[in-house]
Design a protein that fits this description.
alpha/beta; three-stranded parallel β-sheet; five-stranded mixed β-barrel; 23% strand
């Protein structure tokens, strides 16, 4: 696919099953300039009992080892994950294990979902369904922690020049994405500059300000 698509500037891999991330795939991402140094790794949870209930085939130890391998093989990689909070029978202790893990690992990007009870799914009949209010509280705790992490990580871009893919013009500024920003789920880069830019154009942008999830920069000519 990569060799047959010379006109595609960036190739982004999304929603990679942790069990199927091989050394060969990591080496390809690390070595190919057109493949974004971005890995979407939906772990869903970190507690082993909950992972087993979710029918996940990987353990906490396996997830930790995989994250370490990814960061070693792809320096500067942007690591994204997805979580589910309030899964049936999730205890306070198990949730806190997940929350502390998030604070320790510091994923660059993170999305969280509140467990929704759906008919005709195995979890629908599980005992220990969590009250809606408690699920919401757990969701807010995760997102509050990630908000602080994202702001801290974004601050590291201040003063740096990065490649940005221009997507549209809005209110006098251009909106674009860095390699670390997937469409619809991640942040944006607000690009200021007098030069006319085109959608789909790659430009160099010097970051002049950082927000919780977004970056602001000046076009570097």
């Amino acid at each position: 696919i990569i060799s047959n698509s010379p006109d595609i500037g960036w190739i982004r891999l999304l929603y990679l099953n942790p069990e199927r991330i091989s050394d060969e795939l990591l080496e390809l991402i690390a070595s190919c300039k057109r493949v974004c140094k971005y890995i979407d790794l939906p772990i869903q949870h970190i507690n082993n009992r909950i992972l087993k209930l979710m029918n996940r085939k990987i353990t906490k130890q396996g997830i930790i080892a995989l994250i370490g391998k990814i960061r070693k093989k792809i320096p500067g990689v942007c690591l994204r994950t997805s979580l589910i909070v309030g899964f049936p029978s999730e205890t306070d202790k198990e949730f806190n294990e997940l929350l502390e893990f998030i604070k320790e690992v510091k994923f660059d990007r993170l999305g969280a979902f509140i467990y929704s009870r759906e008919e005709n799914t195995p979890a629908y009949s599980f005992k220990g369904q969590i009250a809606r209010k408690l699920k919401q509280e757990r969701f807010e705790a995760i997102m509050s922690a990630q908000q602080k992490i994202a702001a801290e990580l974004n601050s590291g871009f201040l003063g740096k020049t990065i490649p940005v893919l221009i997507e549209e013009k809005q209110d006098g500024a251009y909106l674009g994405r860095s390699q670390a920003d997937a469409p619809e789920v991640d942040g944006m880069v607000y690009v200021n500059g007098k030069q006319r830019l085109l959608e789909g154009e790659f430009v160099k942008v010097k970051i002049t300000d950082t927000l919780e999830y977004d970056l602001v920069g000046e076009l570097k000519i």
